[in-house]
Amino acid sequence: LCRGGLAERLCRLQNRERSAISFWRHQCLSDDKIPPDKSGVLIVKILEIFEECTIQVAICQQLEQSPATLSPEDAVINAEEPILKVLFTRETAAHLKSRPQDVIHIYPPWQKLLLQNADVPVIMNTYFSQKVLLSEHSEAREKTYGLTKMLIRKNIISLAQTFRLDDVDDKSHQEFSDNQVPCAPQTHNNGDSKWHPLALSAVNDSLLEMVESQGAVGWREAQVQVVIQRVYCLPAREGYRSHTQGNKPLCAASVTNSDPPNVRLCLLVQDAYGMFSEVQLQSLSSTDNIEQYCRRWEGKSCCLAGIKILQRTTRGRALGLFSLIDSLWPPVVPVKVPGQSQDSEMMTTNLPPPSFCYILTVQSGEIHVEVDEEEQISNLYQPPAVHGLKEILRIDGCNERCSFWAQVLYRRLQTKHSVPIDQREMLLFVTDSTLQNVVHGIPKVVAVSVTASCVLSMEIIEALSAGSRLVFFKDALWGNGRIICVERTVLLLQKPLLCSAAGADLSELTGPVRLDELDSTTQASSVCALRGTVVGVNESTAFSWPTCNRCGNGKLEVCPQDRELLYCNQCSEVVTTPVLKMQLEVFLSCPSRSQSTVKVKVWHEISAALFVLLTMLLFLQTYEVQSVLGKEVGLLNCYVHSITSHPNCVALEEIVLL
C-alpha cells in the first residue's frame, strides 16, 4: 500500500475497528453479563432471518423495554411497535448465532438509514451487539439449539436485475430487482419461504456473482450453470481422505506402489462470463475409469449446487492451473461482459486473461452436479487441439499446454534412491509419424516425463505393462525443450470424440520404428541406436543367472528330489531347460563419437547374435577376451545413462522396445 494513501488509512481504520469489537466482546465475556443499559441502546426482537449478499438481514420488532424477569417468548408482539430491518455482518452473525424470537441489544454507534420509497428503516453498524438470555428456560433452549446448526435462507440477487440490465417480465422478478422486501410482522416457523419473491432458487449463470452473494460458507439451494471444459483427477490432500468412504482409489503415476494415494475427480468449468473455477468432486475407486467421465461430461452444460469455496487462487500461486486456463483463452464464442447490457455486442477479442480462480469443493459431503448428457455440446466448449510431435517441438513458448497422439516405445522409472518410489518420475519415450518421417534436425523419439502428481488410471498402467500402445496425451506441458505430464494432464487409450487436429498429420505408424543413432547431439536420459566395434570387456562386472523358460522367474531353487535340476516356485514345476541371462559391460569404438569412450551394459537374453560367442565363452569360463575384440556390433537399442566430458565417456544400457 502507498504510504499515507487512502488504502493504507482504510486498512488502519479496519484494524482499529476489529480491535475495538474484539475488546468489547472479551469484556462482555469476562464480566459474564450484558453491559448495563444506557441511553442509545436499541432493543429488538428477531422475527425472521435471511442472508443477502453475505449480509445477514433480520426483520425485527423494536422493544421499548426488555425486563430481566421476562423471557423472549413472553415479549408478545405488539402491532404498534415499529418494524426494523437490522443488518449484521458475517462475523457478527456468527458471534450472535441468532434465531427467530431472540432479543438482541444493539449498542451505539448504530445508525438508522431511511430509504426512499421504503417504509421500513434499516439499522446498520451493529458490531456491538449482544444476545440476551433472560431466563433458565431460554438458556436451556439455547443449549438445545446450539447442538443443531440453523439453516439460513439465502436470497440470490442478480446484478443484472439490480442494475436493470435485462428485461424481466415476471412481476416477482420486478419486485426482486426493486429490492422490495416484505417486512410484515409475522413469523414463518415452518421454514416455507415461498411467500418471499427473493427466495426463488433461480439458476444463475455467473460464478463470481454466486460466490459474492453466497460467500465462503457455500450454497446449498442456489444453482449456477456452467460448461465443463475439462475432466481430470488430482491427488487428494490429506485433509480430504475422509471423503473416500472406503473406496480404493485410482492408481497414481508410480507403477510399483502397492498403496497408491487417493485421487479426486475434478472439473474445470467456465461460466457465461468466461470465468473459470475448479470443482473438486468425490474420490474415485480403482474401478472408475476417468475416460468415461471425459466422454460423458466434457463439453456439456451442468448445474452446480451444494458447493463451498475451498480457496481463491491466483496466477502466481497456481501456475499449472492457469497454464491450462490460458490454453482455453480467449473464448471461442462471445461471452457476457459484467456491467454492460447484454443487448450490446459481446466480446471475444482483447479480453484480459483471468487473474484469479476459485477452487470449489463439496459441502458436508453432499454435492449436486446435474449434467444433461443428452444435451448438445456447448458452443463455449474448447476441445483439445491435437498437434503432431514435430509441431510441438517447434513451439517457442514456455509452459504451453499441448495434446498429441503418440506411440509409446519404452518406459523407464527414474531410480533416484533418495526419492520414495511413489514420488519418482517415469519417462515414456514416444514417437509418431511426423517424427519418423523427418530426415534430420529433429529427434525421431522424444521423452515425456510423467511426474508423480500426474494421475494414471489402472487401464493406462496395465496397457503400458502389456506392450507398446498408442496413447492420447491431453493437456501435457511443453517448456524448456521438455514435454511433462503434470497435474491436470490426462492419458487416454482412445482419442476424444471431439478434438481439433489443426491440420496435423495424425496417421499411424506403418513400418518399423527407427531411433536416432548415437552422435555428438545425443543427450543423457534419451534413447538411441548404437553401432561400433568391441575394443574391451569389463570382466569384473560380468555375471549370469538362470531363469525359468516359462515365466521368466530369476529366483530358481535346487529341486529337492533331484539336486541336479532347478525348480520354479511360481510355476511349481521343474525347470529342465533354463534360460541363462547375463550382464556384461563392453567398450565400443563408435565412428559417430570417435573422441569418446562408449561403455554399454549388455544383457544376454536381449542381445543380438553378435554376442552369443562371447556369452558362451564366459559361461564356460574358458574364454579369451582377444577372441571377441574387434567384433562389429549392431544396431543396438540403448538408453543413455550419462554423458561426461572429463573423462569423455558415454554410458549406455541395452534396452528392449515395447
UniProtKB/TrEMBL annotation:
InterPro entries: DNA_repair-scaffolding, DUF4502, DUF4503
Superkingdom of origin: Eukaryota
The species this protein was found in: Ploceus nigricollis
Taxonomic lineage of the native organism: Eukaryota, Metazoa, Chordata, Craniata, Vertebrata
Domain DUF4503 residues, every copy: 270-657
One GO CC term, this protein: nucleoplasm
Residue ranges of domain DUF4502 in the record: 1-113
GO BP annotations, alphabetical order: double-strand break repair via homologous recombination; regulation of establishment of protein localization to chromosome
Annotated protein name in UniProt: SPIDR protein
